[in-house]
Amino acid sequence: MSTSAADAVAGEIAGSDDGVLETPFLDSERWNILQSIAEEGGYAYATMTSLAVAGDIRAAEAAKEMAWEQLHSGPWHSVVPIWRDAYSMACMHLAKLHYANGEFNQAIKALDMGIIMGGMMLRDELNLAIRKASEKEKARSDLGEKGESEIKFVSQEINVAEVQQSLPIKSLSCKLVGKRPALSLEAFLGDHYLSGTPVVIRDSMDHWPAKSKWNDMNYLRRVAGFRTVPVEVGKNYLCPEWKQELITFSEFLERIRSNDSTSVETTYLAQHQLFDQIQELQQDIVIPDYCFTGGGEIRSLNAWFGPAGTVTPLHHDPHHNILAQVVGKKYVRLYSASLSDELHPHSETMLSNSSQVDLDNIDKKEFPNILDLEFQDCILEEGEMLYIPPKWWHYVRSLTTSFSVSFWWSDAEKLDD
């Protein structure tokens, strides 16, 4: 949807009857979408959608389930794109019926699912519908109250000597990543971007509203408490007991507050495009100017939010990366891209960017040379940014409750990758 079209839709929704969740763009494009779905064999889906439009909530749920099955019929990259739009459409129809019944929370949940799992065609209208339903939900719930006192996630300094006992062998004993205050763009380009050298940048996030807001549980609960988000449960994604769940942000916040870092049921909101989904939080951050170095473009903004003890195992990413530490502290270990073979990547295609080496429990018989490999590491403090060059291997552990943002961007010559 173009900007002008989105503005027009916003105007129509803003002026609509409070008992109706208007969807002018969907209404105008429904036939074209259904025709494309029918061409992919979705005749039963089209039938259920027609019933849903007429007000049958069971048909709306059935259409959503049909699209869901198509999304999970094989690897995500092999899903026919129109079925992603079909899923968004079904979520929108279901939300409209919940909204008409005054079930604003259920409407928001359906719309969130459309954003998380659906295509891009209806994204603007989904966001506008969430805005309207959220206003209704806030107006009738305590989530709209602003008089609550702060509940801080992190309120005291850590003992580095105690923390070090939980870190991988040799941590903080070799080469530390250099830290530079208010690094200029010219210095970043010449000293780090072009040479592919990691650096911790200080004093470049002080103007972010997130710096003063995201350490307050009540602020996050007011802004996003009733939204549905995907979380990871378990030690990390390489472990057999690892799983994913969809829960409300309020439920997630409660899990963080009551977390026992020794539990295998640690819950982590990891590598999720939270700011595309919850735009109020995106207003609290600023894309660093460093991310436009090289003339490329932003590829992804991801949130990493969880309790102490969450771990992202040793892996590498394809793009330039700035990891901005908004709340709490993290330990980060980095290995040069030139050491890829020595770090034993998994042979499976889906995990080929992840190492078989578990730094928390190194098998010295299977990987006898790991402790001889050079690495850099650091404790990433609140308010600091870490530049991780493409293909550099990194392991990350939260030392406290931690809320981080990663900015991925590409080189100009890789825009088509």
Explain this structure to me?
The strands form 2 sheets. Strands 2-3-12-9-14-7-6-4-5 form a 9-stranded mixed sheet. Strands 1-11-10-13-8 form a 5-stranded mixed sheet, with no helix packed on it. It has 14 helices and 14 strands. Strand 2, helix 9 (185-193) and strand 3 form a beta-alpha-beta unit. With 417 residues, it is of the alpha+beta class. The protein is 36% helix and 19% strand. The longest helix is centred in the N-terminal third of the chain and has 20 residues, at 81-100.
Q: What is the topological layout?
A:
Blueprint: H1 3-14, H2 24-39, H3 43-53, H4 57-71, H5 81-100, H6 104-117, H7 123-140, H8 160-164, E1 175-176, E2 179-181, H9 185-193, E3 199-202, H10 210-213, H11 217-224, E4 228-233, E5 243-248, H12 249-257, E6 267-272, H13 274-277, H14 279-282, E7 298-306, E8 311-315, E9 320-327, E10 330-335, E11 376-380, E12 385-388, E13 393-398, E14 402-409
Parallel strand pairs: 1-11, 2-3
Antiparallel strand pairs: 3-12, 4-5, 4-6, 6-7, 7-14, 8-13, 9-12, 9-14, 10-11, 10-13
Helix pairs in contact: 1-7, 2-5, 3-4, 4-5, 5-6, 6-7
